[in-house]
């Protein structure tokens, strides 16, 4: 994303923030939990759990409908959460934030709502080889249905986008360029602003998959000028079951609804209906109210511990330390770029050890990591690797947990006779 100088940020008090997360007190197989699976989902601070608890205990009621005190309170809290999200990513207005179930649904919303109306045979959608399945499969489906062609920006063996191909791939045929702001396998942070500019220069819209980026670094949609941004609450200390789509108001206004039913309509007759204004046009049925309030509480929490620059800065230190330590393990090979060009995660392979066996040994030592292809099968195919083990950090991880990771990996090598 926009890599600002972060030397002056106030450091995060990691020992203090750890006390905010009840689950970090847990023991797994008799030893303290070391949670290094943050790219899959983050842990939840008490403030988020309590915000949802408070909603159910004190004001549970449906939004936008009831003319009674509880409904008015729920509506106010639900809409206040939307406003917090808009501010968090620097959207112009809360109307540009649509609540969805997750980043996957946000991308599907654009694919179906914008894609079905705007893509035609001969048009092209450009994505990259480092996308999560969430930013591949919807475009495969929409291209199949509209006759548009799906193209990929290739990756280099070092885990970067091969930017030398962009001038050939981005043409007047390109209608949308959808790409991740941080790879969930390599950790690579591509030059988002430059990619948006290049897409706009040929008249294409841009969708940024912010599932990994919004949770780990400052994201400013106005500075980036992206047209859409998709992200999930659960990766940024919020609950599961809620995500968001940012879209420029002018685009959202023109788009057809994705799902239809109650709340998203203005009027309904026997034979047709008219649509509510944005963002409600895209929120059919009773939404995930408690989850939206939890999402807002997560944003408050991230701001309260020092904000996204401080979080990004700390994770840069952690990933640098982790990669330095891991490179001393014989037979371990990390994939992706050096720490300066990535976020706080690292995927690796080890000679003679299957990632599932590695993860199982680490689990015995209380360490949670991810093993597999991390919903990025085309990327692994491209690298000719079946699966990798991924350790992903957040602001509550301690440097001492890197030492535990290294010791446990060495134990795995011994166990399997390597
Ligand atoms: N995009 C990226 C880069 C991801 O890492 C993920 C989840 O891991 C997603 C999209 C999908 O997020 P969700 O499962 O919350 O919809």
Summarize the structure.
The chain has helices at residues 14-18, 46-59, 69-88, 103-118, 137-146, 166-169, 192-201, 221-224, 249-254, 289-304, 307-326, 355-364, 377-383, 399-415, and strands at residues 27-28, 31-32, 34-35, 97-100, 124-128, 149-153, 174-180, 205-209, 228-232, 243-247, 265-268, 273-275, 332-335, 345-350, 367-368, 370-372, 388-392. The strands form five sheets. Strands 4-10-9-8-7-5-6 form a seven-stranded mixed beta sheet, sandwiched between helices. The protein has a four-stranded antiparallel beta sheet with strand order 13-14-17-16, with helices on one face. It has a two-stranded antiparallel sheet with strand order 1-2.
Report on the structure:
With 418 residues, the chain is of the alpha/beta class. It folds into 2 domains: 14-41 and 306-415, Aspartate Aminotransferase, domain 1 (Alpha-Beta Complex); 48-303, Type I PLP-dependent aspartate aminotransferase-like (Major domain) (Aspartate Aminotransferase, domain 2, 3-Layer(aba) Sandwich). The chain is 38% helix and 17% strand. It contains 14 helices and 17 strands. It has helices spanning 14-18, 46-59, 69-88, 103-118, 137-146, 166-169, 192-201, 221-224, 249-254, 289-304, 307-326, 355-364, 377-383, 399-415, and strands spanning 27-28, 31-32, 34-35, 97-100, 124-128, 149-153, 174-180, 205-209, 228-232, 243-247, 265-268, 273-275, 332-335, 345-350, 367-368, 370-372, 388-392. Strands 4-10-9-8-7-5-6 form a 7-stranded mixed beta sheet, with helices on both faces. A 4-stranded antiparallel beta sheet has the order 13-14-17-16, covered by helices on one side. Strand 7, helix 7 and strand 8 (205-209) form a beta-alpha-beta unit. Helix 4 (103-118) packs parallel to helix 5, helix 11 (307-326) packs parallel to helix 14 (399-415) and helix 12 (355-364) crosses helix 14 (399-415). It is globular and about 70 Å long. Residues 2-6 have low confidence and may be disordered. It binds pyridoxal-5'-phosphate. Pyridoxal-5'-phosphate (PLP) binds at residues 102-104, 132, 134-135, 180, 184, 209, 211-212, 232, 243, 375.
């Amino acid at each position: 994303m926009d890599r600002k100088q972060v030397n002056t940020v106030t450091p995060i008090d990691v020992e203090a923030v750890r006390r905010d997360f009840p689950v970090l007190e847990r023991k797994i197989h008799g030893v303290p939990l070391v949670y290094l699976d943050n790219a899959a989902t983050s842990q939840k601070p008490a403030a988020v759990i309590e915000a949802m608890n408070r909603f159910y205990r004190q004001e549970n009621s449906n939004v936008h409908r009831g003319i009674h005190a509880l409904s008015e309170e729920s509506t106010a809290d639900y809409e206040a959460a939307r406003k917090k999200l808009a501010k968090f990513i620097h959207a112009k207005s809360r109307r540009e934030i649509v609540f969805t179930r997750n980043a996957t649904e946000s991308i599907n919303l654009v694919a179906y709502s914008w894609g079905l109306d705007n893509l035609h045979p001969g048009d092209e959608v450009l994505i990259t080889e480092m996308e999560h399945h969430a930013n591949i499969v919807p475009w495969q489906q929409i291209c199949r249905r509209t006759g548009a062609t799906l193209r990929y920006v290739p990756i280099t063996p070092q885990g970067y986008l091969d930017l030398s191909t962009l001038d050939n791939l981005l043409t007047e045929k390109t209608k949308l360029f959808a790409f991740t702001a941080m790879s969930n396998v390599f950790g690579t942070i591509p030059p988002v602003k430059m990619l948006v500019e290049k897409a706009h220069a040929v008249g294409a819209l841009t969708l940024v998959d912010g599932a990994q980026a919004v949770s780990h670094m400052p994201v400013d949609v106005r500075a980036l000028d992206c047209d859409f941004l998709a992200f999930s609450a659960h990766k940024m200390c919020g609950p599961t079951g809620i995500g968001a789509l940012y879209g420029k108001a002018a685009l959202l206004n023109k788009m057809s609804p994705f799902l239809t039913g109650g709340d998203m309509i203005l009027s309904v007759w026997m034979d047709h209906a008219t649509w509510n204004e944005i963002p409600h046009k895209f929120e059919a049925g009773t939404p995930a109210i408690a989850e939206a309030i939890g999402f807002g509480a997560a944003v408050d929490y991230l701001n309260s511990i020092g904000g996204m620059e401080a979080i990004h800065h700390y994770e840069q230190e952690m990933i640098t330390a982790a990669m330095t330590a891991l490179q001393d393990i014989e037979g371990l090979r990390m994939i992706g770029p050096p720490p300066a060009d990535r976020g706080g995660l690292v995927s690796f392979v080890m000679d003679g050890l299957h990632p599932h066996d590695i993860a199982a040994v680490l689990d015995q030592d209380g360490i949670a990591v991810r093993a597999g292809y991390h919903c990025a099968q085309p990327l692994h195919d491209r690298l000719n690797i079946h699966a990798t083990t991924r350790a992903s950090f957040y602001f509550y991880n301690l440097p001492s947990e890197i030492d535990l990771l290294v010791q446990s990996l060495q134990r795995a090598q011994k166990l399997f006779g390597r």
